[in-house]
Amino acid sequence: MKEKIKDFISSFGLPRLIISAFLLALFILSPIVGADLPMQITNVINRFSWNAVLVLAMVPMVHSGCGLNFGLPLGIVAGLLGGTLSLEFGFTGPMSFLMAVLIATPFALLFGGGYGWLLNKIKGGEMMIATYVGFSSVSFMCMMWLLLPYHKADMVWGLSGKGLRTTISLEGYYDKALSNFLQINIGKISIPMGALLLFALLAFAMWAFLHTKTGTAMTAVGSNPNFAKAAGIHVDKIRMLSVVMSTWLGAVGILVYQQGFGFIQLYNAPFYMALPAVSAILIGGASVNKASIINVIVGTFLFQGIVTMTPTVMNNMIHMDMSEVIRMIASNGMILYALTRRSEVRR
Amino acid sequence: MNKKRMWIIRGCTLLAVLAIAAVMLVVGRGHTVYIDNKALEYNGQTFEAMYRSEVWVGGERLSKLAKKERTMSTVIGQGFEMNLINTANKGDDPSEVSVKLSLPYGWDGIVVNLPGYLAGLPQEAWMTEFIPAPEPASEEDEEPETFEDEIPMGDI
Amino acid sequence: MSSVNQKGGSRSVGKTVRSFLAGNSVPIMFILICAVCIPISGFSPDYLLNEIITRLGRNAFLILSLLIPIMAGMGLNFGMTLGAMAGEIALIFVSDWQIWGIPGVILAMIVSVPFSVVLGWFCGKIMNMAKGREMITSYIISFFINGVYQLIVLYMMGSVIPIAHSSIKLPRGYGIRNTVGLLNMRQCIDNLLAIRIGGVKIPALTLLIIALMCLLIVWFRRTKLGQDMRAVGQDMQVARDAGIQVERTRIISIIISTVLAGFGMILYLQNIGNLSTYSAHSQVGMFCIAALLVGGASVDRASIGNVFLGVILFHLMFIVAPQAGAKITGDSMIGEYFRVFVSYGVITMALIMYEMKKRRQKASIGEQLALAQKEGLQHE
To answer: Domain C26-369's class?
Structure first.
């Protein structure tokens, strides 16, 4: 019996256990300390719906052995281009969301293609280079947001009329476009079905893809590249495909996030956005070279649960808001734990 | 034998470093000395302020104090030296006094009352601790930013 | 006859020129950027000279701390932020104890050592558990410890850890303010033996300390520990077979680097005179690594020359970019974003070049092995 518990702990991971227990404690404490539990649950579900697609973007690259996609900001930038251009071209309402996705797609394909080509040239050092490719692209776009000829009045700075603002409100555009679609209210808990349906659709598509011939080839490339090459699989092409998929999902993901959050955030905002997605999927049970859809769902739920509930519960309990610090320690600790585990494939 | 020597050397280095730290703690203790030319009441007696007192610190004139005036000087270390050129009443000849004080370690700010000191009173009479008035809580320091979400943009 | 020789000669010259350009592409690119931006920015040479010397004195020690992990094969030590945090904590304490001037700086350096050693040991231990991924691990460690640092400085200082002066605490009573003034230590080392020539101030004592550090590093490379580190950096398996305690040596290299980073941060802060409690260390970490790479260093090779060349070129670019950007596009923010972009771009390029070189080396070793096997078979 003790052996079984030990095995469970070592396979599930001690940090994960701690985090899950912590979240459970938060849920139990929440009504006790006077926090509004239904509202908390609504918040958690809402934040889940915003972030899940970004976490899903991690899956293709983990499967193909490119590691955790620290270069997610590149896909986010593609999504930002899609969003801003859709607004610039005058689309409003839910249509602007659809157009944002459509416009972002060619950018995502282009960026993902270049990024994938680069990663193929530097097999073995993907994660570090991905991080800095992400940073370079965000800081390059910082210059671009100032220089590109945007004209829409509520996007540019008022005084000079040139250069995009740091945050652009999405009211009237695609703010809550998905969340309000098919919103179900159970008692005091409101569930944004639209966003969840989109995530479910994409997740199902990913799961289905991974069971196709190309998908299984992708998994083979990640878990055993020599076998894959011997079986005649074109390793580089598959890796490039995974990077393009991940970038595109990142673009869609940030658009989903924006419609929930209500604002487009430019300049420095996408800078560190890879880290929450990375630690979320790791919390959900993934490792550097293994990730499943279940990991995405569980991980996003746990991560967003902690992020949402810690501030309110802590504030009500000890009148001290340590949530930022706890989030930093927990999420980065999780990434460290994953990086230090012995992985099956060592190159 | 070799290992023992290594530990001895390490122990000595540690002790030396700790000694340096202790010395620094004493030598580097900074104080602000406030020098008052104010009348002092002590034991029922009143010691009058001087008409004018020139305070010289480190070879340079710090200030010319009239009655009721205060000047200040920062000093590193436990000793404070100053030269005074005192004129007790208007028209008197100035007299020079050289002052050497040893400052208590625990006080940040020290107030020295010149009339009391010059009258030769015991130290508690003319040396008091300076306690700054509590600053009103300023709004600008509300919530410290955690700065995790910022690209380093500042100057280095 | 002679024409064939001439052709061969010029080809080899062309080859050397090309390999020189390729090997030093980053510094050359920076020289070009500076050559373009400096005249546009309109700064006077006097001003630039003064700024560069000041920044050299401020940053060189920090960048020197990066050399040892590179020697030991740990790559770019993003964990130098940990040393910077240790230095900051020490300075907060020393400020609170009201120890001023040079004794304050010395005391802060001494106090920072235990923190640096603990943090460096932690960093090295975790990096040993993630062999092959040292750089991304040290990068995440810096974020993780940043969280711990904030836990200590934002919550424990003032409440659990006694801080005497409310002037450095937040209005709520615990936690340190966003900025802590270091006026009583400001430039105390810089000013002690300052030489003023024309409009330029040369902080002789600071530069002397930096020179001593360089000599120390050169001496260290020749000691047994230094040689061990170089062996570990070259090839871990060979070093292990030679009897070197590889794990321990790697951890020691990180500890030394962290301690030096702590000292360097204290020197940096005494020059600026002001501590941005929550942002100083991360800024410093990123820019120092960029500066080292600009000087021509790579992930596995860095020399003292790289440090100084890097400081000069990187900081020249850093100073002139905002002004040049303002003159070109009318918006000074462009220049500021540009210098951040260039810093990240330089690191990205260095990482890419390093990885590509690694792969080429592996491929060529594989080829040589295959060739040797073939020849071995032929001889049988």
So the answer is: mainly alpha
Q: Where are the domains of chain B?
A: 30-131
| Closest chain B residue by Cα to residue C164 | B108
Pairwise CB contact (< 8 Å): C98 & B76: no
User: Taking the domain B30-131, which CATH number applies?
Assistant: 2.60.40
Q: What is the per-residue pLDDT across B101-150, written as a single tens digit (0 to 9) for each?
A: 888 888 888 898 888 888 888 888 888 888 877 666 555 544 555 545 55
Q: Touching check for A199 and chain B: CB below 8 Å?
A: no
| CATH C-level class of A16-27+35-340 | mainly alpha
Q: Which residues of B touch A271 (CB under 8 A)?
A: 149-151
Select from A174, A207, B153 the least CA-distant residue to C338.
B153
Of A94-103, A284-293, B38-47, C138-147, the range with the lowest mean pLDDT is: B38-47
Query: Is the pLDDT reported for residue C3 higher than 70?
Result: no
Q: Which amino acid is at B137?
A: A
- Among the partner-chain residues B76, B134, B138, the one whose CB lies closest to the CB of C100 is B76
ipTM score above 0.95: no
C118 touches chain B (CB under 8 A): no
Residues of A with CB under 8 A from a CB of C: 70, 118, 121-125, 127-129, 131-133, 135-136, 139-140, 142-143, 146-147, 163, 275, 320, 322, 324-329, 332-333, 335-336, 339-340, 346-347
Cα–Cα distance for residue pair A275/A131, rounded to 1 Å: 10
**What pLDDT sits at residue B137?**
55
Q: What is the pLDDT of residue C138?
A: 92
**Cross-chain Cβ contact A329/C148 below 8 Å:** yes
Domain boundaries, chain A: 16-27+35-340
What CA–CA distance (Å, rounded) separates C296 from C306?
6
- Give strand pairing partners of C276: C179
State the residue for tokens 């230095």.
C87
pLDDT in tens, C212-223: 999 999 999 999
Give the mutation candidate from B145, B147, B151 for the A interface (greatest A CB count, under 10 A).
B151
Element (H, E) at B19: helix B2-27
Place of tokens 């020249």: C316
Task: Give the nearest chain A residue to B150 (CA atoms).
Answer: A268
Q: Domain-by-domain residue ranges, chain C? A: 26-369
